[in-house]
């Protein structure tokens, strides 16, 4: 059978279906075509375009690398750079690498202003992370506003200003000073001695304390301002001992701290008066001089802040571990944590806005929240400050600060403390600025300005 | 009735069921959601009708018995009771939430007005904190409540108001308005708590199960009624499915008083905010 060729069948007449594909086949063909086209479109949509080299996103990092504040500001610059590194490690922002442009503020307000102008006038940098002392901030703000830039300022400050071009990641006085004073009042303190270095921050902060105490019926038994960085403290210490207050509220800064606490606590016979420190945060207290001269004397004293290194949240533990690993730091302070959080807040806003322009960032930052070291912070919709928790800590003998009190919730930032009207705060700032000869601190050898008169003040 | 091409009905059935689920999950404007829900329900029962007839063709009655009618009446009545109960409960909840919001806003407005009788610093603090509270409630807490959440800043502002009154100096504490202010503050706090509780409330799962099962059973029972004209039976099941879908939509809309287009709006707070800002000028 296999060897015989079969006669070929006569060609059958073509049926209608044999003339072309059937309806079902046509349908299948159309379906397959659509599927293939869809697949091609989907793949082309999901495949990133040929990667183009996008220009880097330059940001200014403006802290003092030289001068008397360099040892305080270098850790802030480190924290800023660490946050930038973390952002770049995750692919940068909007596909661009974030490149820090570091400039030295040289611990002088005027240099900070010049450096700000230099950074912003070129146009490549629109955002600056920096500033520490109030004099530097107040010198930078007019320049930032003139060039439509954006400043992320990390330090706690005295309030009495709101610039629409600044995001303040440090605290306002009502977020750390007012609650700390109230904590002392709640614990029975009734008389207070106020002492501070004679520059804008202590003057305004202690004026707020004075108003708060007057409002609560407590007494201010003395108020002294010392020339910045002076070591002549004996007269003030004598006055404090004579007045015997329940609490000393100190806004002394820098080199004055060592001699002050040595003179105050050196005499073992005297009654130990607890001190609330408004300036000397964890890090500053552990400066070489403070350790050498007065480290032991400040043990047991109190610090008003928003953040302590020992806070147990996971974000903080991670941050502290990484910061110490990178820079070999012994301590992490409130301002360092705020500098670090500020960069991440900016990155969050840039991502939300899909734009790094200051105007877009300022819009996006309003109402934003961030899991920062020490807890979630919220950017205020009105004044671009952060809602933060207030804390009081006690300095231990080993130099660490243990938290002893924390506010029930985050606290609303109020740049203008309600204990005086906005006009009164502005008048106080003007009075001091002009009284010091257009400076933000008492000039060397300058006279002590008397308290401003406030007729009819509550 | 010829039952060839059943796959089309299955396809339609599955598609309309998926559409029902999608409409239920999607966040659509109220009118669109309502129309789509009813449309998908009508499509579902119409596609299910031939399937049911095919599956149980020997059971479909040519003549409706008295027993069948009585059972249907009982099932219908029970289901109507359940629907009525659910609608009343969610509507009451919605009304109470609305009243709570108004009372909370009133307490805040009163508190701020009474603060004028205290010293300058106290008045400034209360006014600023009240303004912050209204802004946070409107901008942050309202969207958060739609997710059954709250805004920590609102809690913070409320805590600050308490702190202002509990840490007052002796002169302000002696003020005749101190007691009434504390009372208003308590009302404010209580009403916020009630508002947050209302935002987290939900119709219990067992009620939802009964709601859906009852509706499905009522519709399925109509499948087995003998009706001479096909279009008439389709019309009957469509109307029934539409009514059930509308009931589900109604309960869903009012189930969460602060979500969706039917949700309570922060108008009372907006009015207080405007009043506070007016006072600022």
From TrEMBL, chain A:
Keywords per UniProt: Membrane, Transmembrane, Transmembrane helix
Transmembrane segments: 29-49
Superkingdom: Bacteria
Disordered, as annotated region: 1-22
Residues annotated as signal peptide: none
One Pfam family from the record: Peripla_BP_5
PANTHER family assigned: ALIPHATIC AMIDASE EXPRESSION-REGULATING PROTEIN, PTHR47628
Protein name stated in the entry: Urea ABC transporter substrate-binding protein
